[in-house]
Amino acid sequence: MDKDSRVQRKRSRNEDLERMRLEMRDTTASIMRLIQKRMTLSKQIGEIKSTLNMNVKDEKVEEDIMNMVLGLSDEIGMSREFSSHFLDALLAESVRLQQIQQDYKSGNVSRLLSREKSKQTHLSIFLKAKQIEASGRRILHMEVGEPDFSPPSEVRGALTESFDLKHYHYSEPAGILKLREVIAKKAGSGISEDMIAVTVGGRFAVFATIVSLLREGDEMISIEPAWPAYRECADFVGANTKALKTTMADEWIPDTKKLEEMINKRTKMIVLNYPNNPTGKILDKKILEKIVSIAKQNAIYLLSDEVYSDYSFRDFSSILHHAYKRSIMVSSFSKSHAMTGFRVGYAIADKEIISNITKVQATALTCVAEPMQYSALAALKARTSENVEMVRKRLDIISNRLQRMSLCFVKPDGAMYVYPQLNNGLQGLSLVEKLLDRGVAMAPGSGFGEAYVQFIRISACQPEDELEKGLDILESVLANG
Amino acid sequence: MDKDSRVQRKRSRNEDLERMRLEMRDTTASIMRLIQKRMTLSKQIGEIKSTLNMNVKDEKVEEDIMNMVLGLSDEIGMSREFSSHFLDALLAESVRLQQIQQDYKSGNVSRLLSREKSKQTHLSIFLKAKQIEASGRRILHMEVGEPDFSPPSEVRGALTESFDLKHYHYSEPAGILKLREVIAKKAGSGISEDMIAVTVGGRFAVFATIVSLLREGDEMISIEPAWPAYRECADFVGANTKALKTTMADEWIPDTKKLEEMINKRTKMIVLNYPNNPTGKILDKKILEKIVSIAKQNAIYLLSDEVYSDYSFRDFSSILHHAYKRSIMVSSFSKSHAMTGFRVGYAIADKEIISNITKVQATALTCVAEPMQYSALAALKARTSENVEMVRKRLDIISNRLQRMSLCFVKPDGAMYVYPQLNNGLQGLSLVEKLLDRGVAMAPGSGFGEAYVQFIRISACQPEDELEKGLDILESVLANG
Question: Could you give the 3-state DSSP secondary structure of residue B332?
């Protein structure tokens, strides 16, 4: 090709480029006009709905649109992930516009930040109780899951030793090797130290798992009643939480048929928490197997929070024994070793998942404080079976008292709570406020799922005589208002 | 209105609803087809560009489109925030599709996770050095900013005491009141304890600040060379980092004219880090004032990481003295009190910003480990001026040696590093690898910004004789290769 024709060709390419850029501008503008049209439609539909007394959100209609969008994606060769992500953004924006236009907050985190404000949970009651205590009154803490007994005595020595041995440096982001080795050994065969990340409490293990595996618009299924942290972490990345509600009548056993029906293309994770907070339920092995097989069939992650597994009063089967590559087991030293304030937990999973969890941890906070890691290592040498017996006995005491008050509940298989239903339509939240006035803090059941307004959660983290005092107050308030 | 006409009206509304829903479906489908068209165009433009040897990303063109989109938003009454967010998603998807279609990772976190893999920083060199040490060889650590001296002796007692006084429980998410009070007092007038969040190291203060204030598509300006954490945290939420590059020739002083030119509608934050890691620069007060005024004019957040402020060898002015409501000061106990492994830092800002930072911390990890908070409280009673003198002396030693090797650098005003440029086009990364072979770890300059491939960072966190040994090796490698 001679020079002239090369120059000419280049010129014509430049013209092509200019023409295509203009077309791109026009296309972008057309897309925006259509989006605006769509939003106007959505607003009008909302108005009609409100005159017809219908809900603003209609899951069936949204599901239909999503299916259409996914079908069309395949047809025109667009990535399903992008198009569902895009539709979610449209839906979210419509809802947002219909709500408070002026108070548009920044980030995905916004959903979390705005949700946190209004909700009453065991934590908000705890903070209220602390405020009352600051004014000089004593409050009995039966609202939080914080053991009243001490960490193993081995921990005391480990703290001083950590100073003398200069164990106060940056550690590997996944945690010190020794601790991971001991956790791996305890977890059983097939688990190696590179399948473990030591995290800032079980909570950061949950957080890092959810934020590294879910994205905006993904769906996570949580089995309610449930610890609110799962939903909060999903909110953090803009993922949607769908609740599979369980009932006391069904002895808190999840309906696996319903679970299967809830799963769609956007479902990315199921969260399990057994022994359960707040019900104390432990699943039969068969049910767990069924859930694992559902997850397998749909290639869904299974996050199993087993932080209460040491407090199991019947057979408990860890997710680790089900050899599922997409499962993540989370645990911590907070409950088993009464080390809540040490903030040491861990995740056990496939190497690649652990590597992502570790990267999230390295980005957010470098690593877990080294003296706390060495304290956890020392704690693992201690026997904790006495604590387990003690909690079991306390749960019996609470259960007996509640029975005498004619409250219904399912006797806990494990964990450290009883979750009774109140009679005569009494709301947990209003009871909890009355109890706080009388000097005892208990947790409102609705903190674990909006369906459970008639429940309260009573924690066994107090000595027996204190528990009795708290239950006396409960009995008196229930009898006399 | 009689019953018949009410029924009829309801029926006609239901028909309206049905019709509008169909229109909504059609509109959604049209939007998707246009998006597909846009992506095809974008791909074709990419192909032409590659034959013309042009960059895939063209900031000027993107800026033009953004301006058009914002203008159109105003015209058709769409929220500017939504439309810019939407355009960003389109651009990101186009780029993503052009890259690796099959390796589509989940979440915003994906950008972070994929970036982390390839980049060599002081941290990756540190981990390499640790691996070499595990095989039995000794490595001199002049790559990380981890003081070799001990935390104050007060901390040892605080550790044991924290066990005996049962300081191992959940604390308030913002940190124990006493510690916040002492930090507030130290920070000076106008700072109250509710303007402080105690965090898991300064790093989590940076993380929580960035993720609670920035959203996908927002822009953050970082003054390079810079600690890579800022960019990593922005990546985490999908915000874009723009680098304002400074040069050794300008004595690392940022060009405030350039800064002003970089700011657009999407700019939400400027990150300052003085005394600077890695250059040791401290800004003149006038320059800082100019930056604050630019931020004020544009209502941009100013994140000021002042973790090295105790190591200032000339006047240093904290952002707190500039009374700017959108500023966030971050610091920690890691460098000032040699407590890296304790992971205690803090943010000081307006109450509302602190409240959001605290919520992020509560969601991710509940609170900082209580024994670590009490250790920090004890550390604040200690004098640390001897450490500062020691580091200053070490920096002098390093500077003198580097001068003798004829390396160019700006003498540090503070912090604990020297950041020299290598001669004859020698690349920092290849030098660092040779040095590691010879038993000394130093940090590649490119870890702090891709423009600084010819720099290395030498850390003063070793005793003088060790520093001399490390510098002997450097001198020998530079002389003989």
Answer: strand
pLDDT at B92 over 70: no
How many angstroms separate the CA atoms of B225 and B277, rounded? 8
**pLDDT for position A1:** 56
Confirm or reject contact between A181 and chain B (CB < 8 A): no
What local confidence, expressed as pLDDT, does residue A114 receive? 55
B-facing residues of A in 195-254 (CB < 8 A) are: 200-201, 203-204, 207, 211-216, 218, 229, 232-233, 236-237
Q: Omega of the bond prior to A225 within 30 degrees of 0, cis?
A: yes
The whole-number pLDDT of residue B100 equals 33
- Among A10-19, A173-182, A425-434, name the one with the lowest average pLDDT: A10-19
SS3 of residue B306 by DSSP: coil
Chain A contact set for B232 (CB, 8 A): 363
Give residues with Cβ within 8 angstroms of B419, minimum separation 6: B225, B278, B279, B280, B409, B410, B412, B445, B455, B456, B457, B458
Is A346 an interface residue toward B (CB < 8 Å)? no
B189: distance to nearest CA of chain A, Å? 25
Q: Are strands B440-441 and B140-141 parallel, antiparallel or unpaired?
A: parallel
> Residue B256 is which amino acid?
T
- The model carries a pTM of 0.83
B421 CB near a chain A CB, below 8 Å? Answer: no
Classify strands B417-418 and B440-441 as parallel, antiparallel or unpaired: unpaired
Tell me which chain A residues have a C-beta less than 8 angstroms from the C-beta of B23: 41
d(CA A370, CA A368): 6
Long-range contacts of A102-107 (CB under 8 A, 24+ apart): A104/B79, A104/B81, A106/B212, A106/B213, A106/B214, A106/B215, A106/B218, A106/B268, A107/B211, A107/B212, A107/B213, A107/B214, A107/B215, A107/B216, A107/B237
Q: Using CA atoms, how far apart are residues B298 and A102, in angstroms rounded to an integer?
A: 19
Residues of A in contact with B368 (CB under 8 A): 343
Residue A465 has pLDDT above 90, yes or no: yes
Domains assigned to chain A: 34-104 (1.20.59.10), 116-148+384-480 (3.90.1150.10), 166-379 (3.40.640.10)
Residue type, B263: I
Chain B nearest C-alpha distance from A72 (Å): 7
The CA distances from residue A26 to A19, A31, A32, B39, in Å, are 11, 9, 10, 13
Q: Which residues contact A26 (CB under 8 A, 6 or more apart)?
A: none
- Give residue A124's region: left, alpha or beta (phi > 0; psi -120 to 50): alpha
Q: Taking CB atoms and an 8 Å limit, are A340 and B162 in contact across chains?
A: no
Distance from the Cα of A387 to chain B's closest Cα (Å) equals 17
* pLDDT (0 to 100) of residue A478: 96
User: Is residue A412 reached through a cis peptide bond, with omega within 30 degrees of 0 on the bond before it?
Assistant: no
Which residues, listed in sequence order, are joined to residue A196 by a DSSP beta bridge?
Answer: A348
Helices first, then strands: H and E counts in chain B: 16, 12
Contact B171 A341 (CB under 8 A): yes
Q: What value does the mean pLDDT take over residues A370-387?
A: 96
Side by side, the strands of the sheet bearing B219-224 are B196-199, B345-349, B327-332, B301-305, B267-272, B219-224, B240-245
Strand order from edge to edge, sheet including A345-349: A196-199, A345-349, A327-332, A301-305, A267-272, A219-224, A240-245
